[in-house]
Amino acid sequence: MARINRAVELLAQGQPIYTTSLAEPGYEHGREAAASWADYLTVDLEHHPFEPAALRQLMRGLVDGGPTRSGHRTPAVVVTLPTSGVDEQVVRANAWMIKQALAAGVHGLLLCHVESPAAVRAFVEHTRYAFRDGEGRRGAGGEAFAAEIWGLARDDYLERADPWPLNPEGELILGLKIENRRALERCEESLAVPGIAFAEWGPGDMGMGFGHKDAHDPPYPPEMAAARARVKAACERSGVAFFDIVRPDDVTRQIDDGVRVCAATAEGAEIGRRHSGRTLPW
User: With 70 as the cut, is the pLDDT of residue 102 above it?
Assistant: First the structure.
């Protein structure tokens, strides 16, 4: 395939993309998920054990169970990191998590509770190799397994393992969760940092910040609707794809409203793909 990362391929075409979550990593889960209907798989390691060995087994299972129905070697995989973007120091102190996840051959990372543009800059730096601009902090030596998972020679992997759309030829997608009131106050600055492909507003945590124990699902109170609108506007201003939950009964409205990265069911994704003129079935 021209692209390793199906999610990048579709976003570059202007198509919405759809994701579903894997409960946990591991080889058998990978083999089963290789035929997923989703454009990319989210592996939530924010709330589950961070086990790089199990993550590698997941990626191996995806390869062995593939190719995907779209003809890609594996579905794209985005890992939700257990660290957060509270500030630059937190990101740098926990950059080992970024290294370990990328060395497993995943295709993207999602940073939670992003409260500082400096944290975003550090996040992007730690996903890049220094040979590009001298600023990258991803070290040499951890790329062999990832290159094998992507089906590339080492040098080809080094060229392509870079954030898109900052690098138009890059195959990594980096996302942010703007999911609390402190993050909201600086979201315009954070989302303007080059290297970010998508962002979400995290209604569960955002709602808690506004005093709601469980306001994850719509209809949202006015202050939460305003928070969503602010994050979405900041995404649009910076050319970052906006992530939101879609359902079969609202997916077409959400797409028409500008949602481009969708947490969905298989039914919702099928409706959305038809609505956006995607070449079906994949």
Answer: yes
157 and 140 Cβ atoms separated by less than 8 Å: no
Q: What pLDDT is stored for residue 59 in this prediction?
A: 98
- In a domain? residue 232: yes
pLDDT of residue 24: 83
Domain count, the chain: 1
Q: Is residue 152 part of a domain?
A: yes
Contact (Cβ atoms closer than 8 angstroms) between residue 18 and residue 50: no
* For range 58-68, the mean pLDDT: 97
pLDDT at residue 1, rounded to an integer: 56
- 157 within a domain of the structure (yes/no): yes
Cis peptide before 67 (omega within 30 of 0): yes
> Quick one: DSSP state of residue 218?
S
Looking up residue 147, the CATH number of its domain turns out to be: 3.20.20.60
C-alpha 7/C-alpha 19 separation (Å) is 9
Single out the residue of 164, 192, 136 nearest to residue 76, CA to CA.
164
Q: In this structure, what is the dihedral angle of CA atoms 153, 155, 159, 163, given to the nearest 10 degrees?
A: 70
Q: Let me know: does 1 contact 72? Beta carbons within 8 Å.
A: yes
Convert 87-109 into a string of H (helix), E (strand) and C (coil). Answer: CHHHHHHCHHHHHHHHHCCCCEE
139 or 24, greater pLDDT: 139
Residue 280 lies in a domain: no
Domain extent at residue 32: 6-275
